[in-house]
């Protein structure tokens, strides 16, 4: 994954980011939903659904996953094969990291224009107010940053994150094949899954998100509504509620924390490959008054500079491609300047007639 990023990175200073010590919500954190977010459609009957919880070890899992991806663009999984001890070890390193005094954390700040390191959510640049959260992004080895954070104790923590990356990458490879085969796409149809057809040539980042307890949670927002610029995002949340997924454009549904479960979400790149059959859901993270919340998001993205396009098996004269081909590298550049990146690469009705379907 490219480590350079555009001018839209957001940076923090010691003065404005010690959320733990604030007793009153500063004006700069009093949340207003900007116009760029689609407003909720009004319906008299609320949806009372919960996100599907799927046991990955059972034979009907692929079928259930296919259904969940077409409706929610998301689901939770248990029996996913990632050792719970590893999930807890990664989580506990994240807890230790965010508990460090701010001057330490600032030693591991993202340098301008890059992804890895400590800071606030990149999407904050699209919103008029600050989000009630901190984050730390790991791409490749976190050694340089961890050495600053824990001069005597970094190597074990680096090993844990490396192991987390390996385990989650193989889980994502497995999930990719399930998602694709539910669309009738087979191994012969994909030429970017790598020499072993396991998607190990894909890139990834591990994003640690921390939401301190908030003095005025109803007026604050942990992470504003967004879609992920990934193929898949696989997220572990601690036992505190906060993640909400937008259901059918009309209702926020809270994803209940389930011990050991992982939340899987379609990202924009899989929405492109599936020609919109799988939609990357809007999601957000709300905060609460008494509990700290932590999430570890594994952001799984295509190999750099490989063009992703609606798969030709899904296209026909009545189902023309909805998006033009684009690499992840180019797409993240578009998204850093446009909140709704997918609309920028949508083939409009006029063009659709001209696109040949192979
Ligand atoms: O903390 C959460 O539950 C959401 C995190 C998220 O959406 C992200 O890291 O992109
Ligand atoms: Fe997200």
Automatic annotation (TrEMBL):
Q: In which pathway does it act?
A: Hormone biosynthesis; Plant hormone biosynthesis; gibberellin biosynthesis
Supply the name of the protein: gibberellin 3beta-dioxygenase
Domain Fe2OG dioxygenase per the UniProt entry, residue ranges: 202-302
- Name the Gene Ontology molecular function terms of this record: gibberellin 3-beta-dioxygenase activity; metal ion binding
Q: Tell me which family the UniProt entry assigns to this protein.
A: Belongs to the iron/ascorbate-dependent oxidoreductase family. GA3OX subfamily.
EC number, UniProt record = 1.14.11.15
Q: Where is the signal peptide?
A: none
Q: Which cofactor does it need?
A: L-ascorbate
Q: Does the keyword Chaperone apply?
A: no
What general EC class does the enzyme of this chain belong to? oxidoreductase
The organism encoding this protein is Cucurbita maxima (Pumpkin)
Alphabetically ordered keywords of this record: Dioxygenase, Iron, Metal-binding, Oxidoreductase
For the keyword Repeat, the answer is no
What GO biological process, any one, is recorded here? gibberellin biosynthetic process
From which lineage does this chain's organism come?
Answer: Eukaryota, Viridiplantae, Streptophyta, Embryophyta, Tracheophyta
Q: Which Pfam families match?
A: 2OG-FeII_Oxy, DIOX_N
